[in-house]
Design brief:
- The chain has helices at about 5-30, 65-70, 105-115, 120-125, 135-140, 140-150, 155-170, 175-185, 185-190, 195-200, 205-245; strands at about 50, 50-55, 80-85, 85-90, 95-100, 105, 130.
- By secondary structure, it is mostly helical.
- Strands 2-5-6 form a three-stranded antiparallel β-sheet. The protein has a two-stranded parallel sheet with strand order 1-7.
- A hairpin with a 3-residue loop joins strand 3 (about 80-85) and strand 4 (about 85-90).
- The longest helix is centred in the last third of the chain and has 42 residues, at about 205-245.
């Protein structure tokens, strides 16, 4: 038989109620820590802007006198804090969470994720909050802002690396000149004369082509390794700095 308009409206209402109940059940399962698949909602998702709460987890063997205990009671969490990345915040470390929540993350690991896998930060809190990780650098002052600028702008980091290599070349021009002379007068180089002489006496376009190939090889093999090494060192330094500078029990916004 045919379906009446009233029956169609009733069916649509039941489907809407089912979707609402599934959404409520999903959020309840997430709140108790179960990794339940997230429902896809059409339309823009409104995120709540949040600052940061910070707590310090002291070492288990740390002893404080009564005055020091009262001063640090607000900023320190005596009980182990759960961490969304590491499972548990290690003693002697600081943890942060969106202001007003208790979903803690180790600050050092969060800042490292911010630099290496920034797309995963929002999913730590199921895309519920809009957080500003640059607040860590502002709390750290000029050194933190300088490190943040270099890590946020890779061309600036490459420029500083080139400047450092140029300065090193000027300082070490004596030993470098000696090494070049030894290379140009070495027997091993002249034994390969038939191999490299073809490039030396090649036409100018060919020389430019081979020079480009050599430069690209050096950049891809050694330049990338050097940049990655320096960047990782700067990321570790930034993590240490923001963890040291971030005050416990203070919201940075």
């Amino acid at each position: 038989g045919t379906t009446s308009a009233a029956d169609s409206l009733w069916l649509l209402g039941q489907l809407a109620l089912r979707e609402q109940r599934l959404a409520i059940l999903t959020e309840s399962l997430r709140e108790v820590g179960l990794d339940y698949p997230k429902l896809t909602v059409k339309g823009p998702v409104v995120k709540t802007k949040k600052g940061w709460d910070c707590a310090f987890v002291p070492d288990d063997d740390e002893d404080f006198d009564e005055d020091e205990e009262e001063e640090r009671a607000l900023g320190e969490a005596r009980e182990p804090l759960p961490c969304l990345i590491m499972g548990e915040v290690l003693p002697g470390s600081k943890a942060v969470c969106p202001a007003g929540t208790v979903k803690w993350v180790t600050l050092w690991e969060l800042n490292k994720m911010r630099r290496n896998e920034p797309e995963k930060i929002s999913s730590l809190w199921y895309d519920q909050y809009e957080v500003d990780c640059s607040a860590f650098n502002r709390v750290a002052g000029p050194p933190g802002l300088a490190l943040g600028f270099l890590l946020d702008h890779p061309p600036a980091l490459r420029l500083i690396l080139l400047g450092g290599l140029a300065a090193a070349g000027v300082v070490l021009r004596g030993p470098l000149s000696f090494a070049c002379i030894k290379l140009l007068t070495s027997a091993a180089l002249w034994k390969k004369y038939l191999s490299w002489s073809r490039i030396v006496y090649a036409p100018l376009p060919a020389k430019i082509y081979f020079a480009q190939l050599a430069w690209q090889l050096v950049l891809s093999k050694y330049g990338g390794v050097l940049e990655k090494f320096v960047r990782n060192a700067l990321v570790d330094a930034e993590c240490d700095l923001v963890e040291f500078a971030m005050p416990a029990a203070v919201t940075a916004s």
